[in-house]
Amino acid sequence: MDKTEYTESKALKHSNLEKLEYIGKCLYLESMGKKLVAIGDLHLGYEEAMNEAGVLLTREMFGEMIEYLRRVFEKCGNVDKIILLGDIKHDFGNVLRQEREDFVRLISYLKEKMSGSGEIIIVKGNHDIIIEYVVKTDRVKTADYFTHGEYCFAHGDREFEEMNSEEIKFWVLGHGHPAIKISDDVKVEKYKCYLVGKYKGKNVIIVPSFLEYNEGSDARESNLGMAWNFDLDKFDVKIVDSDELKVLDFGKLGDIN
Prior knowledge:
The chain is an alpha/beta fold. The protein is 15% helix and 36% strand. The chain is globular.
């Protein structure tokens, strides 16, 4: 299988994690003297794709996205690495006009939130087959996965042999769009969530999608389409409170009614 890897220097491999924080839909790490933010599936161009399919959506998503990110970076400050966990664009086979325009504006904004030597790493998702035609700027790299010390960041639809290295202790994944339905016997609400658990000795964090118009899928009802047969009932559910940019621990997925 052809693949591209982006890996930090092996000399840094044995440093310990200093901090892991859930800032709303974004995962913030301090590791090996670097600050990193991981952002789940963005699906830029979703509105245009829906409009072409006959579903009328207003073009407000990008502005809402930037406002959310502004609040995130207000909490964590400028960072050294921004990892986009795949499905940057929504359309599979083409580059829609909105995708290209929003991508350029997004990258311009994210560059302002990086340190002087910072980089944006685009981990390619299944929607990003032709992302290279959009990425034409400095300080932006594309890869099938990205490793930083004990962490491996991947989209989640494919497994790579290097993810199983003994040096890798954590997998940070997108793709699944995890959400959870909560019922109070009167109504049912769905919330974006992280799913956090273990698989064959690895600590696994499945990050919610950043796309706001769709909460995602409840793993008790739908197959999240991950490349592994995770026992998700044993994973911890961390519900996203976007208003406060916090997460709420709700226990094991299998224990939630």
